[in-house]
Amino acid sequence: MTTKLVVIGGDAAGMSAASQARKLLEDDLDAVVFERGHFTSYSACGIPYWIGGAVAERDSLVARTPEQHRANGLDVRLRHEVVGLDLDRREVVAHDLEGGGEVREGFDHLMYATGAVPKTPPWALAPGVFGVQTLDDGDAIHRWLSTHEAHHAVVIGGGYIGVEMAEAMVQRGLEVTLLEKSPQPMKATVDPDMGALVHDAIEKQGIDVRTDAHVSGLALRDGRVRGVVTPEGTLPADIVVLGLGVRPNTDLAARAGLPLGVTGGLMTDLRMRVRGEDGPLDGIWAAGDCVQTIHRVSKRPVHVPLGTHANKQGRVAGINIGGGYATFPGVIGTAVTKVCELEVARTGLSSAEASSAGYAFVTASVESTSRAGYYPGAAPMTIKLIAEKRTGLLLGAQIVGRSEAAKRIDALAIAVWNRMTVEEMTALDLGYAPPFAPVWDPVLIAARKAADAL
Predict the structure, then answer these.
(1) Domain residue spans in the chain?
(2) Which residues are catalytic, by number?
(3) pLDDT tens across 183-219, in order?
């Protein structure tokens, strides 16, 4: 008997689920994918690097085209937006954005993978103002810069997208102002002392960083943005990029009566089945930036919109849809980014998050280098560890540094994931040779200092 799967959203989570289910069920699966954009299976994380010129071709960001998915037996329908969801009749209603009209599809299994949407203030709806969430958004930014004379860019928000897009605009030769309402950029990512390092490094790249900044509106002329209005005056802007964060794209789910979690994301069980008030809903699945998950350290629900999680969660859902068994065990908030030559990384809990979760903890920060100090190319880095006072468990870690600094967070993420103490970490058998690390790797030095603090 053929199983009917309908997928809402054709990027990482949705296409991973459909592909895994297809592998397991083969011709016994009839899968229809509705995607409102022009692309499938693309890297949204790569958009700033394409805008900035580090990635030459837009299509390099596409892992698998609609044609490739169709060749694998998936009925992919681009430019179709799902506007209705009837759980009782097990049916979705999609609007053809280009051809017009509606399409109705019944389902045995529904994969809800709508992603997230940028937070957009009411005053920000104007030509020349862009969010950065989908490859269509990136296309719009690239097209604007290619067809409009632009000298000044204002980026509003100093999180991941904000600092990455600020770098992209610098790489394109624009004068850039970065506005952040908090005292430091990347406030939600790293502690204030580490954020101060980020702030200084961004300014050294020629970016005008303004913290404790507030925006009240836009200055428009000739039907497009020309400036950003603040209490201190109007900043010139030929393009404005919003980096104010995202929220789960769950409006459709809420209208259909699916309960949302405290983060605004859909609640799922470990197998990625959507949870109702009385338990998992039969045949209703969700994954990616539209769901909330559990933080393995704080044990609290969180919304962490990253492609790594979306792909894993989609794969888990697809295996289960296909009759197998798989689970998604939660997250620890590992993330890396860069702005020009500066690399920033974090995993586990920040100090504020550890306090909020009720932990008593110590912190330890060390400065070291990426290679042996005498070896050419050795670059400075700062590592900060957060350890529980009572047990010595590593609760979180942050890194700010230059070349080859950020990926050291992976060793620290493994330690957090496996509930290691900082004392245990001092004996880790890490790789050493002068071109790759000092004889005492910065991770080991930080662990030793944290153990001393305990």
Answers:
(1) 3-117+246-321, 120-242, 341-453
(2) 45
(3) 999 999 999 999 999 999 899 989 999 999 999 999 9
